[in-house]
UniProtKB/TrEMBL annotation, chains A, B:
<feature type="binding site">
    <location>
        <position position="132"/>
    </location>
    <ligand>
        <name>substrate</name>
    </ligand>
</feature>
<comment type="function">
    <text>Involved in the synthesis of meso-diaminopimelate (m-DAP or DL-DAP), required for both lysine and peptidoglycan biosynthesis. Catalyzes the direct conversion of tetrahydrodipicolinate to LL-diaminopimelate.</text>
</comment>
<keyword id="KW-0808">Transferase</keyword>
<dbReference type="InterPro" id="IPR004839">
    <property type="entry name" value="Aminotransferase_I/II_large"/>
</dbReference>
<comment type="pathway">
    <text>Amino-acid biosynthesis; L-lysine biosynthesis via DAP pathway; LL-2,6-diaminopimelate from (S)-tetrahydrodipicolinate (aminotransferase route): step 1/1.</text>
</comment>
<dbReference type="InterPro" id="IPR019942">
    <property type="entry name" value="DapL/ALD1"/>
</dbReference>
<dbReference type="InterPro" id="IPR015421">
    <property type="entry name" value="PyrdxlP-dep_Trfase_major"/>
</dbReference>
<dbReference type="GO" id="GO:0010285">
    <property type="term" value="F:L,L-diaminopimelate aminotransferase activity"/>
</dbReference>
<protein>
    <recommendedName>
        <fullName>LL-diaminopimelate aminotransferase</fullName>
        <ecNumber>2.6.1.83</ecNumber>
    </recommendedName>
</protein>
<feature type="binding site">
    <location>
        <position position="132"/>
    </location>
    <ligand>
        <name>pyridoxal 5'-phosphate</name>
    </ligand>
</feature>
<comment type="subunit">
    <text>Homodimer.</text>
</comment>
<feature type="binding site">
    <location>
        <begin position="108"/>
        <end position="109"/>
    </location>
    <ligand>
        <name>pyridoxal 5'-phosphate</name>
    </ligand>
</feature>
<feature type="binding site">
    <location>
        <position position="219"/>
    </location>
    <ligand>
        <name>pyridoxal 5'-phosphate</name>
    </ligand>
</feature>
<dbReference type="InterPro" id="IPR004838">
    <property type="entry name" value="NHTrfase_class1_PyrdxlP-BS"/>
</dbReference>
<dbReference type="Pfam" id="PF00155">
    <property type="entry name" value="Aminotran_1_2"/>
</dbReference>
<feature type="domain" description="Aminotransferase class I/classII large">
    <location>
        <begin position="35"/>
        <end position="401"/>
    </location>
</feature>
<dbReference type="InterPro" id="IPR015422">
    <property type="entry name" value="PyrdxlP-dep_Trfase_small"/>
</dbReference>
Amino acid sequence: MFKVNDNYLKLPGSYLFSTIAKKVNAFTAANPQAEIIRLGIGDVTQPIAPAVIEALHKAVDEQTTTEGFKGYAPDLGYAFLRETIAKNDYEAYGCDIAADEIFVSDGAKSDSANIQEIFSLDNKIAVCDPVYPVYVDSNVMAGRTGTYDPKSETWSDVIYMPCTAENNFCPELPKETPDIIYLCFPNNPTGEAITKEQLQVWVDYANKAGAVIIYDAAYKAYITEKDIPVSIYQCEGAKTCAIELCSFSKTAGFTGLRLAYTVIPKELKCGDVQLHALWARRHGTKYNGAPYIIQRAGEAVYSEAGKAQIAEQIAYYHKNASYIFNGLKEAGYTVAGGVNSPYVWLKTPEQMNSWEFFDYLLEKANVVGTPGSGFGPSGEGYFRLTAFGTYENTVKAIDRIKKL
Amino acid sequence: MFKVNDNYLKLPGSYLFSTIAKKVNAFTAANPQAEIIRLGIGDVTQPIAPAVIEALHKAVDEQTTTEGFKGYAPDLGYAFLRETIAKNDYEAYGCDIAADEIFVSDGAKSDSANIQEIFSLDNKIAVCDPVYPVYVDSNVMAGRTGTYDPKSETWSDVIYMPCTAENNFCPELPKETPDIIYLCFPNNPTGEAITKEQLQVWVDYANKAGAVIIYDAAYKAYITEKDIPVSIYQCEGAKTCAIELCSFSKTAGFTGLRLAYTVIPKELKCGDVQLHALWARRHGTKYNGAPYIIQRAGEAVYSEAGKAQIAEQIAYYHKNASYIFNGLKEAGYTVAGGVNSPYVWLKTPEQMNSWEFFDYLLEKANVVGTPGSGFGPSGEGYFRLTAFGTYENTVKAIDRIKKL
């Protein structure tokens, strides 16, 4: 008789955003007149930039002729896109990353969930707490996290690195040495960034400890301050210890188009085994590439017109973030993030826990946010609002909250 | 110090089609004047159908406004597509499959590689031999296959079910009881189909043995004969033992657009655990859906115009398959497949092994095919040619082979 992967059964409840969706659906069903404003899930709302639309139409038209038709893409992505990324996202920042160290994929979610697969099951992971739930959940599903304690909401074999107001949302080096360290900066959910100097400490630590850093830079397009690195490869020595995950989702509004890339430098090795070779093998065996037309869309993000249009979108979301940040501050909330990030992270008021505040906001202001505890135990007592709504809705939502 | 997933290191050599690509590149470099015809990798060549192109353009245009913009897709696929599939691919054939038992994804390759993840590591798999290499390789990477014997080119913990001329390319029930049975019909690589009566034997066996069948129906659009099932759910009892994988790649030329779906009936359980729930959890945690515009393209495949245009494409490839089949037969080869399939499977002549015949064909006729041994030990001495080229090239290639 076949048996299932028991690790799946250890996962408590459903994926955070599915739970939120269910709660919102139930509320809407009971209150059909309520005008809900969603500042919960980190999904963008601005239309796709004209330069990208143009590239999509052009690529679609190519598929109408035998000459222009594109079948299976190269396993690791089209050269035109990988070279454009290498030039614009690395060479331009003084990082020595070659086009063939870049793997194109359909999403940073997939990559951040799948990357653990190339590591041994007895490796120990360390995660920021709070953090994007996919890092821990994907390791749970693989069987790498030990047993779950429902009381503390933690796994026995995961090293949690609290990121709270007490340490300015920047984790301290862990006491126990991890094998795999997940870092996400600018951070989801806190919205706080890490300076180059602070990140260098992590790179040095990883190289010394023989750990690998999985660096999620999905929000790098929102960096506004000068001393914040856009890539971990701006730090000395990162190529021997770090994998970097990047996404077009938040940079160019590709949440519905699906495009991302992961960088694995060839120098990154365990003994004489390149992680690059393992990830290439995974791509070759278990994936068939992102659609050609989407890869052409990604290329257009880096065109002159594309860059200008996308800068405008980012500015639009930054304006939202400022409105949220300042509005909440005026209303007496303690807030973080919002400067190098589309996320504002607030302390829940009056000892409310995160889900209580979620319900309170949904009922009283018809605003949907994300409970901090959904991102890990140290997220309890916090709450995330995103700047990805329309400006009008953002203003309306914050003004409602201010009136509570 | 971090460690890698050792199972990856057990994989012998690289993925079959990467090896072929390297050999062809080397030959082309040495013989730049040679006009290579590729009937190797199963990639389509006909342009995308006009109805699909129209749907793509329309969906792209929707992304230009805030109202039309689509962000994250529903985890399991848009309802419009899942309902269209349920109606056209199941209801139309008398199969009781609900829209919410259909999971939309970016490819049957990904799905067939990832599906093993929801099962326990100590489950034993059975595969047809020869077979699409992804089934075995993905299980090797997970650590489910034991040790590799380079001499027999087999894994100690895999049950191989030979499909050769001796049994008309239809596997016999295995002596040892497997937990997971991979079946692919019409088969890749042999091009042979299974009758409904033969498939019913497998369904009854799986239900009795408590095994689950992973049924790869990627080539179902090529079925021409009446007693061949287009879905395993046409067999009585399949809903309690079978998962079905389907793809738009070969049906509608989507190899570069990337769209597929997997069916997991809710009745399919291990104890009281639904496999449906596990796969849903995997989608929710590790995947973010196929692009909206591609899902709209998939929907258009089922429109009246789409159906007619795609039937023409399939007829085009069938014409190629017949030319290959008949041409090789005339030239004295022993051939199979080609009737319910875009693949023709030939016996290599004069005791040549599969790779010897690959080199021979590449050098003497400048034709690229796929060595049968790349699909498993019982594929040795066979060779696969695909009907996915242009008609002109197909004729040219076969005529060259006939002249050898």
